[in-house]
Predict the 3D structure of the following.
Amino acid sequence: MFSKFILNTILLFSVSTVFAQTDGGQKVNTKLIKVTNKVYMLQGKGGNIGLSFGKDGVFMIDDQYADGIEQIQNEIKKVSDQPVRFLVNTHFHGDHTGGNPAMAETGTVIFSQENVRNRLQDVIAKETKKIDEEALPIVTFAEDLTFYFNGEKIYVFHVHNAHTDGDSMVYFTGSNVLHTGDVFFNGKYPYIDTENGGSLKGYIAGLEKALLVINEDTKVIPGHGDMGSYKDLRDTIEMLSILYKRVYNLYLNKKTEEEIIKTTDLTKEYDDKGFGNGFIKTEAFLKMIYKEVAQEAGAGVEDREARNKEAMKKYKEIEKKLKEKEKN
Ligand SMILES: [Zn+2]
């Protein structure tokens, strides 16, 4: 069983690595990874790109940064000379949507959950970053969307208030491959953009929704990091739930944010596995959890005693949920 898995892995994940020069003179290391006969993952300097190749053309998920898009387009051309007909943005962050104007220019139709377009429009209006109008998706949806393309059903579904307020996951039902967007950082503490509608609770709920859609054999393309599996998603849910519960417990014991960050054994088992070596370090991750716990525990209640009582009730619910999960 195990050796068969290794053999499959070697057969499926044939890798090509290319170094090239971008406009800014910066070297980008692009890696095109074959996941199945039709579906590929493209790694570069932004979020992981998902690609489907076939008789209908190219289907694309996310497009990294503007200054890397030419190289990405060249990588795609190496596999197929067909046009990229459709592109789905998993969320609005610049490392997933920066290539949008260049893709639109080639006639690609860009899709996203409606909040992605709203967020991008906000960025354009506030001029916080220089983004062209062409970056905007031209088709949006509220909950989900289905493509019938390259001989399979491609199911795009929104997960609420997870990494942002506009996240989508994309499931290739025939190829049995899921692209999670940034609602999964494989083996690392995730970045949760609470300023733009993200939340830890939503993040966990989003991953739980994914597990309902996929199965144990599904190959998972994360927003960042290497290919993952059903088990990796399940382990991530467990890690997030456990840390949330631990921080909640310390908060109820009147520990301050500072004290919680200094509690090193709180995250030790995950830190040892390298979870804190990614974009989000342990301290930043704990601060994010603390902020959410304090908000959740203190919502609408003024004095600390009454707040703790209310928080204790919620904590019991979390504990009960975790126990139920362990049983399953
Ligand atoms: Zn992101």
Q: What stands out?
A: Residues 1-25 have pLDDT under 50 and may be disordered. Residues 91, 93, 163, 182 surround zinc ion (CB under 6 Å). Residues 240-327 form one domain.
